[in-house]
Write a structure and sequence with these properties.
The complex is a heterodimer of chains A (about 170) and B (about 210). Chain A starts with 13 loop residues before the first helix and ends with a strand. Chain A contains two helices and ten strands. Chain B starts with 5 loop residues before the first strand and ends with a helix. Chain B has seven helices and nine strands. Chain B folds into two domains: about 140 residues, 2-Layer Sandwich (Alpha-Beta Plaits); about 55 residues, Alpha-Beta Plaits (2-Layer Sandwich), CATH 3.30.70. In chain B, about 30% of the residues are buried. The chains are: A alpha+beta (about 170), B alpha/beta (about 210). At the A-B interface, loops of A face loops of B.
Chain lengths: ~170, ~210
């Protein structure tokens, strides 16, 4: 159809839409522009990751004050007790392995935030909600739905008792 | 006419000093290549020169003929130079422009043309050529200012044979002239009669003298 035969309010023919004169109608992206965007964008993401990693290493995460865990010294091998660290909103569990080592973890299951309990017979921490298991020694998930390890509470065994001194991932 | 500044060309004021050409060449975006053309008019009889910036047509024929989609018009009516990643150097626009503005630059294999110093005018500054022009043959002022300081009228309509072209840039002509008419002329100066229509063409050199 010729340009002059068209009613004035009709859409322009398809070939004209592909070659818009106006800046704001131009949505065409050349392969070179896309390649440049992808390359520079990927480089930017890599750089941002490096910067974030460097910052994460530099900022100390033991910014919480040490807290003495009451009556921890009375714990025998294979026993556990609950405490709160670093704030009153953060339930934690202190366990003493059957071998006698001290370990402390956040009590919040990394699956759906139920409270984990100590199972000394299996050397494990157990979440009863969805049957999730964590290794007692390092907090790694060993069975069930959880995929991330329990946040560790760093401990310091001093003369006057056991202190929680920081939170580690 | 509103208070917004516009570009006015007053050919009769041009003294041929080439300050505009020099200023344009010094721009860092196209250093060494002037986007303004200083034309001589009837060189045998007169030293009169005429600066030619892009007229920024309302319906830019250079952009319409571009097969690579490389020439774009901004919402404020400024027709940009060709986009580097797209221009294929075919020179369609060079042939199509009735004012002879776009030029193919072999060094970059790209068409380059005046974009009214878009980096400056979009930030409220004058184009470089209008800033340096000592006789203000190139002026970037409000229409009211032009009316106050100049004789003649500012027109933005050209008739090339049967084709009417409206431009963003104004040209000063003697009062009462609604448009500048351009038709083909033979070597001896007689106009070529278009089919079914009496030939009309303005003697641009004579108009320059009248303003």
């Amino acid at each position: 159809m010729d340009d002059r035969d068209r009613p004035p309010d009709a859409r322009p023919p398809r070939w004209q839409e592909d070659f818009p004169v106006r800046w704001e109608d131009d949505h065409y992206l050349t392969r070179r522009e896309l390649t440049k965007f992808l390359t520079l964008g990927s480089g930017l993401l890599v750089g941002a990751n490096v910067v974030l990693a460097a910052l994460g290493r530099r900022i100390p995460d033991d910014s919480y004050p040490p807290v003495r865990i009451e009556s921890a010294a009375a714990l025998g091998p294979g026993e556990s007790l609950l405490f709160r660290y670093p704030t009153d909103q953060d339930p934690c569990i202190l366990v003493r392995t059957r071998a006698g080592a001290w370990r402390a973890y956040s009590q919040v299951c990394t699956h759906l935030a139920c409270a984990v309990v100590h199972r000394p017979a299996e050397d494990a921490l157990f979440c009863p909600c969805h049957l999730g298991w964590f290794a007692e020694d390092d907090g790694r998930p060993t069975a069930g739905p959880p995929e991330r390890r329990l946040p560790r509470i760093r401990l310091d065994v001093r003369d006057d008792g056991i202190y929680a001194v920081g939170v580690g991932i | 006419m509103n208070g917004e500044r516009a570009f006015f060309i007053d050919h009769s004021r041009c003294i041929g000093c080439r300050a505009c050409v020099q200023a344009c060449e010094e721009c860092d975006t196209h250093r060494g290549h002037s986007m303004i053309h200083l034309e001589t008019i009837e060189r045998r009889d007169t030293i009169q020169t005429a600066p030619q910036v892009c007229m920024h047509c309302e319906d830019p024929i250079c952009a319409k003929v571009c097969p690579a989609d490389a020439i774009k018009m901004t919402p404020d009516g400024v027709v940009q130079s060709s986009l580097k990643p797209r221009c294929i150097g075919c020179s369609n626009c060079v042939l199509a422009c009735p004012f002879g503005v776009p030029k193919y630059v072999a060094e970059f294999d790209q068409m380059m043309k005046c974009d009214m110093c878009y980096d400056r005018t979009s930030a409220g500054k004058k184009p470089m050529c209008a800033t340096v022009c000592p006789s203000q043959a190139l002026a970037f002022v409000t229409p009211a200012e032009i009316e106050r300081t100049r004789r003649g009228a500012a027109v933005q309509e050209w008739r090339f044979g049967g084709e009417t072209v409206r431009t963003k840039v104004y040209v000063m002509v003697p009062a009462g002239v609604p448009a500048i008419r351009v038709d083909l002329v033979r070597r001896d100066g007689s106009p070529v009669a278009p089919r079914g229509r009496a030939p009309v063409t303005d003697d641009v050199a004579a108009m320059l003298g009248e303003v």
